[in-house]
Structure formats: C-alpha cells, structure tokens
Amino acid sequence: MADPTGHESGHSLEGAARGWTWADVVDALIAERGSLAELARHLMDVAPASAKLSDDPMTVERGLRRLRARRSREGNRYGRLVLRCLGAPSAMSQQLRALGQYHSRASDLSVDARHARLLRWDRPPVTESREAIWLHLAVATAANQRGDHEAVAQRVALVRTLVRHAEPMARAEAHLLLARLAMDAGDARRAIEHLDAADVVVVDGKMPPDERACYHARAVDQRVFVDRRVDPAYPLGAAIAAYDEIPDGVDAPPFAAFRRAHGRAWCLWKLDRRDDALASARRAAMHAGDGGYVRFRVMALVLHAHILDRGAEQTALAARARAMARGLGDVALEASAARLMGERTGG
Asked: 253-279, pLDDT tens digit by residue?
C-alpha cells in the first residue's frame, strides 16, 4: 500500500501535507522524463489532433512554464492537456489514494488534522484530475466522522459522477463507502447492491494482491454486518466461515489479518466462546499494531474490554482505548469506550 507520507515517492512529507500545485505537477513530470524539452515533445506526441497543439516545441515549453506558474488556479488549456494526455504524476496518485482509502495509515490522522489537510488538497490541479475521486471519497468519509451530512451528500454526488471511469481500487472504495452510508440510512437493499458491485470489482479488477486482500476483508466485514441487520437469526457460524476466507499469517497484509481476527472475535463472543474470543481479540490488536494502525487497535481494545468479565483489566483497557480515541479526535470510538466504562462503574 502507498506510504501516506509520500516519502518513498519523492514528494516530501511537507509537500504531502500542503497538497499539490501545478508547479509540483510539471516538475514531477519533468523528473519522470528528464527535461522540460522532453516533456514538451512527449506531450506533442500524445496530444490528439483535436487539441490543435502547436508543432513548435518552444511554444509548448512556454505553455508548460505558464502552467507551472498557475499554482492552484484552474489549469486551463495546458492543464487539461497534461492531465488528460499524460496523467497525474505517480507520487500525486499514490498520495491521493492513501488519503482516500479507509484502510490506509493516513486514516489515523485526527479528524481535525485530516479535515485541514484535505482542504489543502481540495483545489486544482487535484480537482481537475481523474484521481479527484480519491479526494471526494476522503472528504466524504471525514465529513461523515464529523457529522456534516450536507458535505457528505455533496461529495457523494461527485463520487457518483466519477466512479464509472475510475480505477478498480477507487471503484471498490466508492461502493464500500456507499454501502456503509446506505446502511446508516437504513437502506439494506441499496447497501447490498453496492456490496455486490464491490465484490465484482475486487474479484475482477486489476489491483495489487495486498490491496485485493484488504478490500476483500472489508467487503466480508460489511456484508456480515448487513446480513446480521437484515436477519437477526443469521448464523454466526456462517459469519465465521466468511471471515476465515480472509488471508491470515505472516504474508497477509496487517489490515486484512486485523479485520479477520476482529470479526471472528465478535462472532465467538456472541457464541459465548469467551476464551476463543479473547484470543482472537488479542490477535486483532496485535495485527493492528503490526500495521501501525492506531484507530483499528483502539477498536480491538474496545472489543477485548467488552469480552472480559468486569474487573480491573476491563477498566484499564477501556480507559486506555478512550484516551487513544480522544487523541484521534474520533468521537464515536471515544463514546464506545466511555459507555463501556459507564457499564463498569454503574454510570
């Protein structure tokens, strides 16, 4: 999975935090091709005849220099040509994907910090690129965490316009988000439709194996949740079998292994297999830690505390999870831990 800092891609941590300008785009494309002259020649080679691009390389170079100076304003003709014909630089694409993926480590930014960072990305050239869908997914998710339903609706509308022509991972991400929002609205039928669409993309879409495993794990978890909501008698044994299909072991992505162990722990707890549930909850926390996922580790600690009998260990775990959730600015997670502490103390 992409490094959310952008460190490996050549774009600095500072650059990833402030977003991208047209200067960043042009400079990155120059670095990929060796020189401004080579970039201009390449653009001339791939631009369609309908673009009516000058056949003078120096004129094209001047156009690229003008684009570079536009910073975060609309890219106009050259901006459209660069993004349409050459695509966004790989570093920009990787960073946007990391911002938009639920299972990226970038999701561990506090809600306020995530919102502030996304505002710096929410402008050209990002908003004019094909990769803008990742930005809209990220903003919709952050807005949902903040309870800003109007912003969620605005971004979801943009996602819907872009999803059909997006890369497979973005399509999977979009359908999983839309499924979650549909269930929040009580529309199980629509949620199932989106989960079915996500399954097709995960099976048939071109994506790295680790990403496929993470998307599969998320789709399984969301489908179990929907099935349990639709049918309270849905057999937990079937849910465990579904979680068992998620990759595990040293070669599995930490997120997928976390999701498998966390889902199994919840099912085993509900089946009153407490010792097995505790073991699985501890594995979930371990896998979250291995992947550097703070938010998912908090989720594992909360479940672990729920499974425990009332006592000092439960209280300590709940307090620890609550403090970590507060640090993330995740109100829902903090409330979950706080409720558990209330149950323990009789509050």
From this structure: 999 999 999 999 999 999 999 999 999
Cβ contacts of 54 within 8 Å, gap of 6 or more: 60, 63
**Tens digit of each residue's pLDDT (9 = 90 or more) over 94-144:** 999 999 999 998 878 887 888 888 988 999 999 999 999 999 999 999 888
Residue 338 in domain: yes
pTM above 0.85, yes or no: yes
Domain of 333 in residue numbering reads as 253-347
In a domain, residue 146? The reply is: no
Cβ–Cβ < 8 Å for 258, 288: yes
Q: Are 325 and 298 in contact (CB under 8 A)?
A: yes
User: Is residue 129 domain-resident?
Assistant: no
Q: How far is the first Cα of the chain from the last one, in angstroms, to the nearest whole number?
A: 42
Q: How many folded domains does the chain comprise?
A: 1
CATH of the domain at 262: 1.25.40.10
Whether 262 maps to a domain, the answer reads yes
Cβ 242 vs Cβ 220: under 8 Å = yes
Which residue in the block uniquely carries the two structure tokens 């990787």?
Answer: 94
Distances (CA, A) of 44 to 54, 76, 86: 8, 17, 11
**36 C-beta neighbours (distance < 10 Å), count:** 18
